[in-house]
């Protein structure tokens, strides 16, 4: 009895991976084994960096709030402590946006905290 090989399914699997490799440079886009390794590595980076992105943005917001607070004679920790003590319901993302793009609104928040 001849050996049965499901070429349709295996070819479809390979085509799916090669479709993900579109836009890669050199053999990474059209050689099966190289493309498969590159795609899997890329997925690992994507998974890792979805977590890292959150940390990076929080760091950026803290730096912006700190810079804005220091313009008004406060440190970041004093400012955030005051924000929590006063019960102001603004998160770091919003405070950073105020500090960067709306300094007069941020100043009014600082005045409330002082």
Automatic annotation (TrEMBL):
InterPro entries to which the protein is assigned, alphabetical: Ribosomal_bL20 (IPR005813), RIBOSOMAL_L20_CS (IPR049946), Ribosomal_protein_bL20_C (IPR035566)
Keywords: Ribonucleoprotein, Ribosomal protein, RNA-binding, rRNA-binding
Any Pfam family hit: Ribosomal_L20
CDD domains: Ribosomal_L20
A GO cellular-component term linked to this record: ribosome
Coiled coil start-end: none
PANTHER family the record matches: 39S RIBOSOMAL PROTEIN L20
Stated role: Binds directly to 23S ribosomal RNA and is necessary for the in vitro assembly process of the 50S ribosomal subunit. It is not involved in the protein synthesizing functions of that subunit.
Family, as annotated: Belongs to the bacterial ribosomal protein bL20 family.
Protein name per Swiss-Prot or TrEMBL: Large ribosomal subunit protein bL20
Organism: Marivirga lumbricoides
Organism classification: Bacteria, Pseudomonadati, Bacteroidota, Cytophagia, Cytophagales
């Amino acid at each position: 009895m001849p050996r049965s090989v499901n070429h349709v399914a295996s070819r479809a699997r390979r085509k799916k991976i090669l479709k993900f490799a579109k836009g890669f440079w050199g053999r990474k886009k059209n050689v099966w084994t190289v493309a498969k390794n590159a795609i899997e590595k890329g997925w690992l980076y994507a998974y890792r960096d979805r977590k890292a992105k959150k940390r990076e943005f929080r760091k950026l917001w803290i730096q912006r709030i700190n810079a804005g607070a220091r313009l008004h004679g406060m440190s970041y920790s004093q400012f955030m402590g005051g924000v929590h003590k006063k019960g102001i319901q603004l998160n770091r993302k919003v405070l950073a946006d105020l500090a960067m793009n709306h300094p007069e609104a941020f100043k009014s928040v600082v005045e409330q905290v002082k």
